[in-house]
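Section 5: illustrative case.
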């Protein structure tokens, strides 16, 4: 496969698993195009034109000047310069990392608009969802501003190793996967919800290493009520002010990848049960669902950097 084919497959899979409809995604991209068309010639030079066709600003090809035909892929959740050196030593054709780096990290805040759509579908008035999410987007953007985004990208370029990352498309996959598990088994109590998560291989493996699903707020004996898989996709943590509105919308329990102490306290104050599925393990589920498709195309996947590789499909040899 060529790196562009791998990239396109990841985006396609992300769109197929997006909580928004294809029409909603098309409208989102059309709004981007209208903004671009109104810019001056000079402003267009600095506009991120990748966002005109890619609805996920946190997913990119960062370097494609290495090998043209991709057969062996090193895939991990995070990437350091040491990981790039390891890739060189192993002689792989491409590194795929989950978490944003380079331009995708600098533009992580842009993908958070997805959270507004999710909150609206959960019953939160869209005007409130927009105001609180936009406030949080501004906070994230300011936090990302001073970061040295290009360290690992520069290393890959110097060593001529192809590099890309896949963030929200993978998060969309785990969002749908967990949502479907919950809808299928319909847990009534919080403890039953934890049992369902602990049946998933990636979470089982994480539990062996002290990072399995855990209850952050509430009690296992509590009735779960309406369950929202609300913090699995959409870039990063949303607004901690949203939990009161969730409670008013009838949500009794949320499932999250991870949560700050401030967010936990806000959810607890709103009397919402909080189940943390696990960060790296949840990321692994999302990546695995995409990697399975790549293995079906004949690629060799070498997991590293926290990726808990679980295969759900048989691939052709």
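Designed sequence:
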């Amino acid at each position: 496969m060529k790196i562009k084919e791998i990239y396109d497959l990841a985006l396609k899979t992300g769109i197929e698993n997006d909580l928004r409809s294809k029409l909603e995604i098309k409208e989102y991209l059309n709004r981007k195009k209208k903004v671009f068309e109104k810019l001056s010639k000079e402003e267009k030079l600095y506009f991120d034109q990748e966002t005109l066709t890619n609805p996920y600003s946190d997913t990119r090809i960062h370097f494609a000047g290495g090998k043209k035909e991709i057969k062996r892929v090193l895939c991990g959740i995070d990437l350091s310069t040491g990981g790039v050196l390891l890739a060189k030593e192993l002689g792989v054709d491409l590194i795929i990392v989950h978490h944003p780096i380079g331009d995708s990290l600098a533009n992580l805040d842009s993908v958070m608009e997805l959270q507004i759509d999710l909150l609206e579908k959960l019953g939160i008035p869209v005007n409130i969802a927009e105001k609180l999410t936009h406030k949080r987007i501004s906070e994230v953007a300011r936090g990302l501003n001073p970061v040295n985004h290009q360290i690992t990208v520069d290393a890959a370029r110097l060593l001529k190793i192809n590099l890309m990352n896949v963030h929200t498309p993978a998060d969309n996959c785990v969002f749908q996967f967990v949502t479907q598990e919950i809808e299928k088994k319909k847990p009534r109590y919080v403890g039953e919800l934890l049992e369902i998560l602990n049946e998933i291989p990636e979470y089982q493996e994480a539990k062996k290493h002290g990072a399995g699903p855990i209850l952050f707020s509430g009690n296992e004996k509590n009735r779960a009520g309406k369950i929202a898989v609300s913090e699995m996709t959409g870039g990063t943590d949303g607004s901690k002010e949203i939990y009161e509105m969730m409670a008013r919308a009838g949500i009794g329990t949320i499932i999250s990848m991870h949560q700050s102490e401030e967010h936990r306290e806000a959810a607890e104050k709103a009397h919402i049960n909080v189940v943390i599925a696990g960060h790296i393990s949840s990321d692994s589920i999302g990546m695995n669902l995409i990697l399975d498709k790549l293995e079906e195309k004949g690629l060799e996947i070498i997991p590293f950097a926290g990726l808990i590789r679980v295969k759900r499909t048989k691939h052709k040899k």
